[in-house]
Amino acid sequence: MSGVDEPSAAIDDSAALVAAIPYARYLDIRIETATGETGRIYRMPFRDALIGSPRLQALHGGTVASLLELAMQFEVLIAERQARLPYPVDFSIDYWRSAAASDCHCRCRLIRSGRRVAQVQAECWQDDPERPIAFARADFLLRTADGAEPSNDA
């Protein structure tokens, strides 16, 4: 599995990563290399099915929250050097403005990835990264694919 220092290698298999999660596939989440810098941008392309308020032409808040949570999980999966799955144990989101009928972009920051817990922050915007529409924080319990606790040997 690729490490944090090798984002392009991790991106190569992003389609398979997204395809493995049905709701991520439904939202059509794309994992892209950030322009001019290291790291990843998670993008949710706009489509009419994601509208939550036809009167305002605003995206459903649940789709924005889902983008943020899934992006943070993907960030942990891509950054981990071991095959450990991130199970959300705490998630909070602050909505700063309505999401218009436009693509959403998200950037994550892995705050900490320890033996059992990972902490991540994410910011979501549409046309301008300087005008975010939402901010989220999450804690993930890290478990092996078989659900076993990490060993104390490492």
Describe what this molecule looks like in 3D.
- It is a single chain.
- With 154 residues, the protein is α+β, with helices and mostly antiparallel strands.
- It has one domain (7-141): Hotdog Thioesterase (Thiol Ester Dehydrase, Chain A, Roll).
- 23% of the residues lie in helices and 36% in strands.
- Strands 1-2-6-7-8-5 form a 6-stranded antiparallel β-sheet.
- Strand 3 (51-53) and strand 4 (58-59) form a beta hairpin.
- The longest helix has 19 residues, at 61-79.
- It is globular.
Which properties best describe this structure?
154 residues, alpha+beta, Thiol Ester Dehydrase, Chain A, two-stranded antiparallel ribbon, 4 helices, 23% helix
Annotate the secondary structure layout.
Blueprint: H1 7-11, H2 14-19, H3 22-27, E1 30-33, E2 40-44, E3 51-53, E4 58-59, H4 61-79, E5 84-95, E6 104-113, E7 117-125, E8 134-144
Antiparallel strand pairs: 1-2, 2-6, 3-4, 5-8, 6-7, 7-8
